[in-house]
Amino acid sequence: MPSASESKDWVKFAQTPGKIERIEAYFSGHGYEPHRHDTYAIGRTLSGVQSFHYRGSQQHSLPGGTMVLHPDELHDGEAGTIEGFQYRMLYIDPALIQKILGGKPLPFIPGGISSDPRLFAATESLLKGLEESVDTLEEEDALYDLANTLAMVGGQRFRRCAFDYRRAERAREYIQTEFSQNITLETLSAVSGRDRWSLSRDFRALYGTSPYRYVTMRRLEYCRRLIEKGLSLAEAAVEAGFSDQSHMTRQFIKTLGISPGRWQKIIQNSRA
């Protein structure tokens, strides 16, 4: 029979399919025995103290830092205080990182914990609540950011590269006309004739934003026009290519600073 404290423990898995496994968990005391993954385990402690043994020393993860456990490194886990600990974690196949870095050594973060704000920012979209979906392009976009940030924080240096404007522009023009469709980085690669990760790098350098953000902004612009024409929020969301109204609402607030409902009322009031 589990103890009273063990009965409080829980683990939840993201239900949306993707290349990256996402979990959230709570442990009131002892979490797990020493074990190792063949993936990166990258996460964030949400509350409490998350203690673990890693490479010969005991580490303590607190809210605000980022855990980066290297593939095939032995580690365990337990609560550092009587309050227990809650955390979110990503499990990422090193092959996904390697495809972006192109044969460079896998980045290593000493101690398994980093306070670097660049790494915290690079994991933000992937470590959001499990109830929030991560679409394919958003995941690929975030993975590109994360791989390069890991390399920078881990001390790797990059050579200057030439950018292919013609192919990046071909991808941008495709987004302009097809933003309401399910666009993936693979789709843009096929359209442009450029490999996915080179295209993602070129797009950022040439247009100041990522392919995912560019798609999202085109959808939000279209939503605003549809709302101004009198469509309901749900109709505007679907028409613009968002998965549902709540998805559109989150992006609307995040990008524009107000909810689409408030925007709708502002438009209505301005016409009264």
UniProtKB/TrEMBL annotation:
**Key words of the record:** DNA-binding, Transcription, Transcription regulation
What InterPro entries does the record point to? AraC-bd, AraC_XylS_family_regulators, Homeodomain-like_sf, HTH-like, HTH_AraC
Where in this chain does the record put each HTH araC/xylS-type domain?
A: 169-266
- The organism sits in which domain of life? Bacteria
Q: Give the PANTHER family listed for this entry.
A: HTH-TYPE TRANSCRIPTIONAL ACTIVATOR RHAS-RELATED, TRANSCRIPTIONAL REGULATORY PROTEIN
Q: What is this protein called?
A: AraC family transcriptional regulator
